[in-house]
Amino acid sequence: MEFVIVLLFLISIVLLGISFTGRDHFKELEQEVEHLSVSAMQEIYKIKKKMRVFEEELLQSGNGSISQNTQPIINFDYYTKNQILTKYKQGMSITDIAKSENVTAEEVKLIIEQNKRELS
């Protein structure tokens, strides 16, 4: 009887040791997801940067062909638009808002003009 108890105790210690030394598949999966997330964020940043450069070039080259009465519609994500409007309501200058949100001052002005109804 004592032999069986000692044997079961030794087996439990061995199994416990194996469970600690075994590979953690969830940790590997978590690292892979984190890596993919960081890669996606980098790609999104690069695309946004390229789009800003493209928009600036388009605005510079197309000034003569666009009438002065039309305003381009700028689509920002909900969070960025709300941040800009909140900072404007708090009295921040347009240049300070543009610097803090990494957008141009013209874009900030257009967002404020497009959302004057919300500001009132």
TrEMBL record:
<protein>
    <recommendedName>
        <fullName>Resolvase HTH domain-containing protein</fullName>
    </recommendedName>
</protein>
